[in-house]
Automatic annotation (TrEMBL), chain A:
Keyword Secreted attached: no
Record's keyword terms, sorted: Heme, Iron, Membrane, Metal-binding, Transmembrane, Transmembrane helix
Transmembrane segments: 20-39, 59-82, 94-111
Taxonomic lineage of the native organism: Archaea, Methanobacteriati, Methanobacteriota, Stenosarchaea group, Halobacteria
Gene3D superfamilies, per database record: Fumarate reductase/succinate dehydrogenase, transmembrane subunit (1.20.1300.10)
InterPro entries, per database record: SQR/QFR_C/D, SuccDH_FuR_B_TM-su
GO molecular function: metal ion binding
Subcellular localization: Membrane
One Pfam family from the record: Sdh_cyt
Keyword match Secreted: no
This protein's name: Succinate dehydrogenase hydrophobic membrane anchor subunit
Originating species: Halobaculum litoreum
GO cellular component: membrane
TrEMBL record, chain B:
Transmembrane segments: 31-55, 67-97, 117-140
Annotated InterPro entries: SdhC_prok, SQR/QFR_C/D, Succ_DH_cytb556, SuccDH_FuR_B_TM-su
Keywords per UniProt: Heme, Iron, Membrane, Metal-binding, Transmembrane, Transmembrane helix
Natural source organism: Halobaculum litoreum
Superkingdom of origin organism: Archaea
One Gene Ontology molecular-function label: metal ion binding
Protein name listed in UniProt: Succinate dehydrogenase, cytochrome b556 subunit
UniProt xrefs under SUPFAM superfamilies: Fumarate reductase respiratory complex transmembrane subunits (SSF81343)
Amino acid sequence: MAERYSSFEKGGRRWLWQRITAGFLVVVLAFHFFLLHFVNHADEVTFAMSSARMESLAYYSLMVLFLITATFHGVNGVYNALENQGLTGTPKRVVKYTLIAASLVLVVQGIRTANAWAGLPTF
Amino acid sequence: MSQSYDRGLVEDFGRWREFSAGMWAWVFHKFTGWVLVGYLFTHIAVLSTAISAAGQSSEVIAANNDVYTTVIVTLESLLVVRILEVGLLAVAVFHILNGCRLLLVDLGVGLDSQDKSFYASLILTGAIVVASVPTFLAGVF
Ligand code: HEM
Ligand code: HEM
């Protein structure tokens, strides 16, 4: 059993970023679950508590970075998978721009939410 | 280093009966990845109630009567939601562990024990999930 399968393509940057974001997500996602299920319990989450965490610049920036990497990793993962299934031409372009638009909406909404907790403008 | 091997078309799900460990790992990784993106969109939608909550008066917020707190507390009081959260944990833990395995495979580490590390990911996921059930369900009954 020494076959080597990999979705690697020479010169592919998206492949590399998929792995870089994965490495970051391992740490943050584990931290997130631990914080919101074991340190604080999910059923005890309140606006005041979320705000207290988000008012710290370190936590706020970690969460925004988490939002952006998770969005990229998830959406790029979906796009790569469709590409591997053989999506090409116009349908591929439509999918690409739809996914980009959805990601933008998600990130903007996520930042507005983060700002609401941190007491910053939600534009 | 890079020997090639005709694995046939994995993308043809109709062949599932002939799948080996590596192919199952591939299918599970896809499935869990898609569930996680789906969850992320839902998660941000629910959390967005914080935008309205921020506009409520400080008395309402101090009394935990704002929209955000009410929505989260209501959701968390439902047994279905708690069960779905255990499912989400299972999906996330498998994706993380198997993802680390894939990162190693891509670096060429441990190629000879790929199927063993897949079984290890499965067993470890099961163990972590079972151990977390009490915490995840606490207070719902
Ligand atoms: C059932 C498990 C989960 C619970 C209870 C939970 C709960 C929360 C809560 C309460 C917040 C608000 C921040 C705070 O109070 O500290 C938050 C933020 C966030 N969560 Fe989760 N979460 C869970 C799983 C996940 C997963 C699996 C992901 C990734 C796919 C994720 C991604 C995020 C992101 C990106 C933010 C920041 C949102 C923003 O900046 O607007 N969460 N989560
Ligand atoms: C926490 C640590 C995580 C690790 C180590 C990880 C690792 C990986 C790796 C290595 C791949 C690439 C597989 C390939 O191209 O062959 C991948 C794919 C993917 N990941 Fe993650 N990931 C993590 C978290 C997440 C999160 C939070 C999401 C959702 C927001 C997500 C969604 C996806 C999706 C949709 C794919 C594509 C699946 C497919 O091929 O259909 N992952 N992951």
